[in-house]
Automatic annotation (TrEMBL):
<feature type="domain" description="PPIase FKBP-type">
    <location>
        <begin position="76"/>
        <end position="159"/>
    </location>
</feature>
<feature type="signal peptide">
    <location>
        <begin position="1"/>
        <end position="22"/>
    </location>
</feature>
<dbReference type="InterPro" id="IPR001179">
    <property type="entry name" value="PPIase_FKBP_dom"/>
</dbReference>
<dbReference type="GO" id="GO:0003755">
    <property type="term" value="F:peptidyl-prolyl cis-trans isomerase activity"/>
</dbReference>
<comment type="similarity">
    <text>Belongs to the FKBP-type PPIase family.</text>
</comment>
<keyword id="KW-0697">Rotamase</keyword>
<keyword id="KW-0732">Signal</keyword>
<dbReference type="Pfam" id="PF00254">
    <property type="entry name" value="FKBP_C"/>
</dbReference>
<dbReference type="InterPro" id="IPR046357">
    <property type="entry name" value="PPIase_dom_sf"/>
</dbReference>
<protein>
    <recommendedName>
        <fullName>Peptidyl-prolyl cis-trans isomerase</fullName>
        <ecNumber>5.2.1.8</ecNumber>
    </recommendedName>
</protein>
<keyword id="KW-0413">Isomerase</keyword>
Amino acid sequence: MKSFLGLLFISLFVSCSLSDDAGPTQPTETEAEAFARNQEEIAAYLEANDLTAQTTSSGLHYIITEEGTGESPTATSTVRVNYKGYFLNNSVFDQTTTTPAEFNLSNVITGFSEGIRLMKTGGKATLFLPAKLAYGAFGNARIPSNTALIFDVELIEIVE
């Protein structure tokens, strides 16, 4: 009986010391590699859907679908928008429903802010963000790391 309990104790001790957690994981690709991959994925999406987009120097791709007639916001403007965010497989991860969202452009992801500043009040656009302009290597609970995103945005008004 003593040998059985001793063996059981040793087995439990060894199994408890074995861990699936090997500590922090290293990114599988650099930011530059992820950016290049995202640009290829976005280009393939645009081609597959017969879309032509403009591209900024930061790598944001955008299509102004309705021009709008009002002013363009600045980097510190508070805006009211309707939007739908989705992945390149068209799976929606977030969207406004009955009430527009209101936020300051200095408090949102870089690509979203940059894209909205290209719009005029009353305008609509589709924004294609490489991960470095979105959530990067970190991702969040709904968005995997190094994932390109698409946003359909309507700029309803500049609040201030």
